[in-house]
Predict the structure.
Amino acid sequence: MKRIDAHQHFWRYQPARDTWITHGMSAIARDFLPADLEPLLAAQQMDGCIAVQADMSPEETTFLLGLAKSHAFIKGVVGWTDLRSPTLSEELETYAAEPRLLGFRHILQAEPEGFMTSDDFIGGVSALAECDYSYDILVYYHQLQETIRFIDRLPEMRLVIDHIAKPDIRSGQQKGWAEALRMIAGFPHVHIKLSGLITEADWRHWRVEEILPYTDLVLECFGPDRVLFGSDWPVCLLAGSYERVIGLAQTCIAGLSEQDRAKIMGENAIRFYKLNDAV
């Protein structure tokens, strides 16, 4: 039984580039590299992780792939490429030589309405499917109606929603998010990550009890076969330690069978990202 953190990040902090790290986020305004994460994984008996892009640049994809090549516990990379580029086919041919490249992500939460359902973007994501890559969907809950239209146009794509679509846990609001998530769960090719939870709650005062209604709904809708655990480290450090994030996840899935807990804590990630050769 392998335990995989299906969502974390590495970076060399550059203030001019990493403008999303704003005032009040000093806890993550520094470098975060494999040497920082490896002991945390070991302490929590995690067998490896998947490094996900945080900057929309091919340079970062190259950076993450380099880390994966030199650190065996990084089982794969979800990178970025311009999916609307006229040279996308050539770029994907180049990436074919990178066995640790598992899929791609675009920071859709920062894009205007209509971006993700535009023909050129849909065409780019479709090209990923042809190369057997997966796609991570990063959106806020208020983008979920457009996300449904996006998913509906990509029936052959391996899709996973990051951070349970960022509901407004701070306010306790589920309206809109819950209804849309139930609709999305009706698409059998869509998975979801139990990740990024505590940073959508009150960073200083979050409680497990206020997060459980959200994770309970995710488990109800998607079942134990389509949910992947991810820490969102080091972003999670804004609201809690790696140990606390693991503890929260274990509490959220405590009512499941041992077999189903094992799926969420690693086996689903291995299957979704096709990690068998890497683990």
Remarks:
- The CA atoms of residues 67 and 103 lie 16 Å apart.
